[in-house]
Specification:
By secondary structure, this protein is α/β, with parallel strands linked by helices. The protein has one domain: Rossmann fold (3-Layer(aba) Sandwich). About 30% of the residues lie in helices and about 25% in strands. The structure holds iron/sulfur cluster.
């Protein structure tokens, strides 16, 4: 999938060695007895107008990474830059300005839509809070945004419970769009939707990208979904990125055994065609509070060797733009 790289040399998003660890507290004195290493040294960057997909099983740390970039959870260490501006040290007031540039769309928009307020008012509130528009001007802007996301302006008066799942996701997208962001972090935005509705919402994301030049950090557990929309794909396992490449390259020549297993798990309509045994993912993802030593994937990897249990593989560029962390690459 081609991407116009000519717009700017400064990446829209630069994440460097980001770690988000959560303390585990135990006993009457809430002593810290360990940590959940949800995000454990992630480095990624993306350009204006790009869609970067992030895939991995549940428990891999994808959502925590998205929320850390939004600073909805505080990273433990590392650096996050938006258009060259470091945001990890920003105070509340400066973060307020930053939040306009980066918006989030959630898997379950219903839980983030106040059921007692008409949905048009929810979107208008975002405009008011950020001092963009109030009153009639805000109402007209919301009408326009509703039409752009495929909702009728008359539906602004309805409440969240009066909409289907797909329509609610359109409202979530409208609320994110209202602030004219540069980057939208979409956290499993179609996972809860029927397949036919998924396609409609993905098409909407793509249309809006063309219209507004938006960039998406698109989180999903399903490679088939990200394949439809992403320019590049990053694969995450137990808090670390294990592979990143252009979409077509990743599908054609996956390097990491975990990526190969994820690809093999994409359902194929013909039951006669089964993935090779060495590509089927065995067992569950280990606990992020006690990740395996060496290569974190070694407890499930069909190609494991002795050194995989001891040495952490370096994340290296194997061919231009194609990075992987595996001793065998
Ligand atoms: Fe498998 Fe070893 Fe590569 Fe890890 S480093 S993915 S265990 S072969």
């Amino acid at each position: 999938m081609a991407l116009d790289q000519s717009k700017s040399n400064i990446p829209l998003l630069e994440v460097t060695n980001l770690k988000t660890h959560f303390p585990i507290r135990k006993g009457v004195f809430s002593r810290v007895s360990g940590h959940v290493y949800a995000v454990d040294g992630v480095t990624i960057s993306m350009q204006d107008g790009e869609t970067l997909g992030l895939v991995g099983e549940s428990g891999s740390g994808k959502s925590t990474l998205g929320k850390s970039i939004m600073r909805l959870v505080e990273p433990t260490s590392g650096e996050i830059k938006i258009s060259g501006t470091e945001i990890t040290g920003l105070n509340k007031q400066d973060m307020f300005v930053h939040r306009r540039q980066v918006q989030m769309v959630f898997q379950d928009p219903y839980s983030s839509l106040n059921p007692r307020i008409p949905v048009g008012k929810i979107v208008a509130e975002a405009l008011q809070i950020h001092g963009i528009a109030t009153g009639k001007e805000a109402e007209d802007m919301v009408k326009d945004i509703f039409q752009r996301v495929g909702l009728r302006p008359s539906q602004m008066r309805n409440y969240a419970n009066e909409f289907s799942g797909g329509q609610r996701q359109r409202i979530g997208i409208a609320r994110a769009l209202a602030l004219n962001p540069k980057l939208i972090i979409a956290d499993e935005p179609v996972s809860a939707l029927d397949v036919s509705v998924q396609a409609q919402v993905i098409n909407l994301f793509m249309d809006l990208q063309k219209e507004y030049g938006l960039s998406y950090f698109f989180i999903a557990h399903d490679l088939a979904v990200v394949a439809q929309i992403c320019h590049r794909i990053a694969v995450m396992y137990l808090g670390k990125i294990v592979e990143i490449a252009d979409r077509d390259e990743l599908f054609k020549s996956p390097l990491h055994p975990y990526t190969r297993a994820l690809l093999a798990s994409i359902p194929i309509p013909n039951p006669e065609i089964r993935p090779a045994k060495d590509r089927v993912l065995q067992g569950d993802i280990p606990s992020p509070s006690n990740p395996p030593k060496g290569c974190r994937f070694h407890t499930r990897c069909p190609l494991v060797e002795e050194k995989c249990r001891i040495d952490t593989p370096e994340f290296k560029e194997v061919s231009p733009g194609h990075w992987a962390a595996c001793h065998l690459t």
